[in-house]
Design goal:
Strand content: 25-35%
Mean pLDDT: 86
Largest sheet: 7 strands, mixed
Number of strands: 10
Order of helices and strands: HEEEEEEHHEHEEE
Helix content: 10-25%
Oligomer: single chain
Number of helices: 4
Distance between the termini: 59 Å
Number of domains: 1
Low-confidence stretches: 1-38
Radius of gyration: 22 Å
Length: 222
């Protein structure tokens, strides 16, 4: 009897190992996707959406993917829509300073113009570039604190800015109340061994922050 039980247990364990090895285990839709191992498209890392209503408001925001794509991470949880209470200071649900998400998208970004920046100059570059684009205060600090420590692998980086006209074709924000000012900027960042890469210099769109403002930045690492 004991021998039969041992054989049964062995067969059950072997079956479970077989199922797991053949991919029957489903991955969570919120598992991060490694851009290098998928043919679907790159992942936009850590877009932060900062919201500044003129008065305390209930704001509903949806993400749409006109060319295909999906949310793979979010805080607070995104279930087809965020409905959040926001203070004029930008405080969300009395808990968050911004809406966080990550998403997978097609690679429809622009690579015609950008900047080549040495690793040691990245912090100053991003501080100046974000400020020139219209970001300020903690929005810039959050970017610097998160991304600069993570951009250390290469001696140089090529930075392709994605302005709102490009982003809206890939990831669209639908907000129940139309902002008076909307700023969106993604950077596609690619490590490089070359110090002097010739690139067409971008023209940064003019942005004025007035009234109800929504601003967002994000990064695609190539």
């Amino acid at each position: 009897m004991k021998k039969r039980m041992k054989i049964s247990v062995f067969l059950i364990l072997a079956g479970l190992l077989f199922l797991s090895s053949t991919g029957c285990k489903k991955s969570s839709p919120t598992d991060p996707i490694d851009m290098d191992t998928t043919n679907v498209g790159p992942v936009v890392r850590k877009p932060n959406i900062y919201i500044y209503p003129e008065e305390k408001s209930l704001i509903a925001i949806k993400l749409e993917f006109p060319m295909g794509g999906s949310v793979i991470e979010s805080i607070p949880k995104y279930s087809g829509e965020w409905i959040v209470e926001v203070e004029p200071t930008g405080r969300i649900n009395n808990q968050y300073d911004y809406l966080f998400y990550e998403c997978q998208t097609p690679d429809a970004y622009q690579y015609d113009f950008g900047w080549s920046v040495s690793r040691d100059s990245l912090e100053l570059f991003f501080k100046n570039n974000l400020s020139s684009s219209g970001f300020k205060g903690r929005e810039i600090d959050d970017f610097i604190d998160y991304w600069i420590p993570r951009l250390r692998e290469y001696p140089n980086y090529i930075i392709y800015p994605q302005f709102i006209n490009v982003i809206d074709k890939i990831v669209k924000l639908k907000i129940n109340k139309t902002p008076d000012s909307l700023l969106r900027l993604f950077y596609v960042i690619k490590g490089s061994e070359n110090k002097n890469t010739l690139l067409q210099k971008p023209v940064i769109p003019k942005f004025e922050r007035n009234g109800f403002a929504v601003v967002e930045w994000g990064v695609v690492i190539k």
